[in-house]
């Protein structure tokens, strides 16, 4: 009489790539900054870091392979174009804030001189 062994195995979730974890961490920081009084300048800096993480993630061989697949190419290009547009808007906004800060410093300086 043959005995049968029933073996169970567990499936553990695969480990995420460190860049994937970085992107998720940065997204969480940005989400939490929405509920705090973090300055717009710092939020834009966080967004810049997020885009840099995403760019690094997109340079991975598996990402490149997926993006080169014809089935995914059109959607990926649309998302990337929107992403570049958003990055340009953020860069311009950051420049405007920097310019505003300089103007305010000049205004404060001139007001101090008048006293």
From TrEMBL:
<dbReference type="Pfam" id="PF03087">
    <property type="entry name" value="BPS1"/>
</dbReference>
<dbReference type="InterPro" id="IPR004320">
    <property type="entry name" value="BPS1_pln"/>
</dbReference>
<dbReference type="GO" id="GO:0048364">
    <property type="term" value="P:root development"/>
</dbReference>
<dbReference type="GO" id="GO:0048367">
    <property type="term" value="P:shoot system development"/>
</dbReference>
<protein>
    <submittedName>
        <fullName>Uncharacterized protein</fullName>
    </submittedName>
</protein>
